[in-house]
Amino acid sequence: MDGHIFIGGGGDDYAVKQGLLLKYANRHGLIAGATGTGKTVTLQILAEGFAAQGVPVFLSDVKGDLSGLAAAGSADFKLHDAFMSRAETIGFDDYAYDTFPVTFWDLYGDQGHPIRTTVSEMGPLLLARLLELTDAQEGVLNIAFRVSDEEGLPLLDLKDLQSLLVWVGQNAKDLSLRYGNVSTSSVGAIQRALLVLENQGGHNLFGEPALELSDIMRTDTDGRGRISILAADKLMGAPRLYATFLLWLLSELFEELPEVGDPDKPKLVFFFDEAHLLFDDAPKALVDKVEQVARLIRSKGVGVYFCTQNPADVPEDILGQLGNRVQHALRAFTAKDRKELRQAAETYRDNPRFVTEDAIREVGVGEAVTSMLERKGAPGVVERTLIRPPSSQLGPIDPKERQALINASPIAGKYETLKDRESAYEVLTKRASDAAREAEKAEQAEEEAEMAEREYRAGRRYSGERVGRSTSKRTRKTESFGEAMTKVVVKELKGVTGRRIVRGIFGTLFKGR
Questions:
Q1: Within the chain, which residue ranges are assigned CATH 3.40.50.300?
Q2: CA nearest 128: which of 289, 335, 292?
Q3: Do the Cβ atoms of 87 and 389 come closer than 8 Å?
Q4: Residue 213, class by beta-carbon neighbours within 10 Å (0-12 exposed, 13-18 middle, 19+ buried)?
Q5: pLDDT for residue 282
Q6: Residue 373 in contact with residue 27, Cβ under 8 Å?
Q7: What's the pLDDT at 295?
Q8: Global model pTM greater than 0.85
Q9: pLDDT of residue 473
């Protein structure tokens, strides 16, 4: 199908080809359905279709099955005959097994290249969501980020943020005057939340080298788009970390990519599996952020496809942005299930040949109700569709094959070695060390001054002089007898008798003349 991604066959005999128009593939989409109805296979064949058309793909592998995209299907596979029969039924004449270029990623670095961001790139809004902070605690976190900018303290990893929070706590009084109340209890609560995150493996998410977006937007040498697969089976043990990371990646794409309008095909297609984890207990500010990204990122050439069990998992304002839809079977066992089934059916453009609500309930495994955007972006009539079989291997590849592909990857070695350049932790540690040295010098100088004063007091005490009184030093000499007599005569002459003697002498002298 020219300009389309072939999805399957529709109509009463499944011979009418159903496809996703590449020109409108950046208008986003939804893959929904109960467990075991075929959502993973639909995701797999869409990834194959985009890659074959030269569109890079990023997806998360929640169950570990999607690594099979890197290997071709086999005639030895138990479903081989069923695949061939289905291909014939839907008119998939050129169906063949094939491999696709794959790059494996893993937050923990075990099943793929390490994938990281920095604390500053994550930002306070997403980090507060990740740590489940209250409004007051989120306010303190915002102040910490503001201080990091003003003080030139780069926040790269968790220890940077932990060190900065210690500094914020120590200077809470001054910061409160500038930014509002900074309580040490809020600082302590954030530190405890960071400790929990660290124990969950969150420290692997933060650091350098951080992910370069160009590395998930690569095409292979033959022009096919590379499929980036994030290992999420272990990551699902920390569902909030999983959801926050994918939302960060989506936000980065929105912030960094240039406007391209409506391209002939997307620059990247992003699949968000287990999408309900993104919205569970999400604050309104976060939902508003997702809605903004979903509404505007299409102009950056990025298509976002949410995969979830029920369309009701996605807020209505965001659901309204998803133009291309593949709805697998929904089960209606309760009144709530029936209501949600009816709501899901009402979002489709009716087909006069069947009742949409009944079709959603009745479709079998590997079958779905589909509606794709048509010319001018109008939603197509809903159709029951038999999903085409995958060309790549259904199920995971062998761990040795996976490791060989990781070693041969075009980005092998780029992210494996963690770098720890100077950042907030190192700067604050140096400041604390310098302050400690200065305090030690001042204390030593004070001790030396006190010791000198004690020695001085002790010395004056033994000299016989009054302690604490400054006196000039005099050298005492032993006087001779003549010097002593002279002093006595001079003393006497200064007295009354002396004056009489002087007058008598001077009177005799004048009379003699």
A1: 4-116+210-397
A2: 289
A3: yes
A4: middle
A5: 76
A6: yes
A7: 87
A8: no
A9: 47
Nearest Cα residue to 11 out of 351, 388, 326, 383: 383
Distance, in Å, from the CA atom of 43 to the CA atom of 102, rounded to the nearest integer, reads: 15
Q: Residues of 26-35 as b/e, b for ≥16 C-beta within 10 angstroms? A: bbbbbbbbee
Q: Residues in the chain, how many? A: 513
Report which of 210, 197, 201 is spatially closest to residue 256, judged by C-alpha positions. Answer: 210
pLDDT score of 468: 52
Q: Which residues are bridge partners to 373 per DSSP?
A: 379
Residues 32 and 107: beta-carbon distance below 8 Å: no
* pLDDT given at position 506: 42
- Residue 440: predicted pLDDT: 81
In angstroms, the CA 228 to CA 110 distance is: 15
Residue 459 burial (10 A CB sphere; 0-12, 13-18, 19+): exposed
Closest CA to 317 of 300, 338, 292: 292
DSSP 77-123: STTHHHHHHHHHHTT-TT-------EEEEETTSSSSEE--B-HHHHH
Query: Is the CB of residue 229 less than 8 Å from the CB of residue 61?
Result: yes
For residues 74 and 393, the answer to whether their CB atoms sit within 8 Å is yes
b vs e for 380-406, b when ≥16 Cβ sit within 10 Å of the residue's Cβ? bebbbbbbbbbbbbbebbeeeebeebb
Residue 466 confidence (pLDDT): 56
Q: Which two tokens stand for residue 199?
A: 């124990």
Distance CA 502, CA 511 (A): 14
Below-70 pLDDT ranges, the chain: 1-2, 460-513
For residue 42, give every residue at least 6 positions away whose Cβ sits within 8 Å of its Cβ, in sequence order, or none: 7, 31, 326, 328, 368, 387
Choosing among 2.30.110.10, 2.60.40.10, 3.40.50.1000, 3.40.50.300, the CATH entry for 4-116+210-397 is 3.40.50.300
Query: Quick one: pLDDT at residue 276?
Result: 86
Model pLDDT, residue 445: 83
Rounded CA-CA distance 418/406 in Å is: 17
